[in-house]
Amino acid sequence: MRKIELIGEIGTNHNGQIETAIELIDMAAASGIDTVKFQVYDANDIVSPKVKTAHYGITSNYEYWQDYINSKLITPKTWLPELVAHAKEKGLDAIATPHSMKNAEACLRAGMSRLKIASMDCNYYPFISDLCSLKVPLLLSTGMSTIDEIYKSVSIIKKNSIPLTIFHCVATYPTRYEEANMSFLQTLKDFEPDHLGFSDHSGDNDLIMVAIPYGIDVVEKHITLDKTQDGPDHPFALNPDECSLWRKKVDNALLSLGSTDKQLSQREINNRKKYRRVAILKKTLHKGDVLTSDDICFARPAENNDCYIEPERISSYYGYVLARDIEAGDGLTEQHFTL
Fold it and tell me: For the purposes of burial, counting CB atoms within 10 Å of the CB of 290, is it exposed (0-12), middle (13-18) or buried (19 or more)?
């Protein structure tokens, strides 16, 4: 059975504390998550100093978003070697979404081997070109993007022969069911990425169940120690109990997919013997009697037997002589007749 990679997005949910980041890595490992992801940026990489915190609907003591970022959201580059080493010690891969080349290079120096392009950068083509120069696999998130923007980004990455994982993503937090547009995964397959992913911002695990039949290889969700903590990404992230369920749900969904062939499990084969109709005698017949259609009904047998005569074959036995006595309610087999 194939395995779907689960990426636990720690992002900003460490609340500016490396100890919390390490605790989140431990939680991910205990939950069966495969990879942890960080966001690595400086405040001026992503937002104008004039942007107010209220612009994002956040209630905070900080008037400006850059100050809020610097207070608790950034993942300092100095943390990266320790975080990557701790993740590997726990058997996890560690990756990041950098928002500048200097931060991308810092991620690689710390031991990361893959980088993710954020939805906000899907149309930031110069940056994507620069990332390609690093010659590492790229994960492209497509939230907020048009088909044309996705095409341009993918073209740049493929032109540079960079392994690509492309993610369906809806950049709403949390994503509502009516916004999810899960069928777009089929469209993303047409871009022929090396891997197909789903970056899930919904508040539960339900959309993952919809995504798996499209053949996804990777799922990413935010994780948190506590949904009630202060910060933009905690409310829709998975807590420890939900993370454990996430792994189980994904693995069970893969088990349930089966194949396009109709294959009966042994349990269903056993039930087939119990529940399928066979030719049953309505009355007791004796050795030498001739079987007629009036002697037969079709019902479930009292015992399991692969040799019972099924409804479509019974007419060929009408007029045959019974080789021994048979009681009413018994199923008929070929061995009951003198042939």
Answer: exposed
Q: Please state whether the peptide bond connecting residue 137 to the residue before it is cis, i.e. omega within 30 degrees of 0.
A: no
Reduce the DSSP state of residue 197 to 3 states and report it: strand
- Tens-place pLDDT, residues 124-148: 999 999 999 999 999 999 999 999 9
CB < 8 Å & 24+ apart, contacts of 153-162:
153/117, 153/122, 153/123, 153/125, 153/128, 154/191, 154/193, 156/125, 156/128, 156/129, 156/132, 157/128, 157/132, 160/129, 160/132, 160/133, 162/132, 162/135, 162/136, 162/137, 162/138
**CB neighbour class for 171 (10 Å; exposed up to 12, middle 13-18, buried from 19):** middle
Encode pLDDT of 245-267 as tens digits: 999 999 999 989 888 898 898 99
Domain 266-338 top-level CATH class: alpha beta
Distance in angstroms (rounded) separating the CA atoms of residues 325 and 287: 5
pLDDT digits (tens, 9 = 90+) for 57-78: 777 788 887 888 888 889 999 9
User: CA-CA distance, 118 to 186, in Å (whole number)?
Assistant: 21
pTM of the model as a whole: 0.87
Which are the contacts of 195, defined by CB distance < 8 A and separation ≥ 6?
Answer: 164, 165, 166, 217, 218
Quickly tell me which residue has 């069966």 as its tokens. 32
Domain ranges (residues) in the chain:
5-257, 266-338
Provide the CATH topology of domain 5-257: TIM Barrel (3.20.20)
The number of C-alpha atoms within 13 Å of 186 and in the hemisphere containing its C-beta is: 5
Q: How crowded is residue 35: how many other Cβ atoms within 10 Å of its Cβ?
A: 18
Q: Which residue has the tokens 């010690």?
A: 89
| pLDDT one-digit tens code per residue, 7-61 | 999 999 999 999 999 999 999 999 999 999 999 999 888 899 899 888 877 777 8
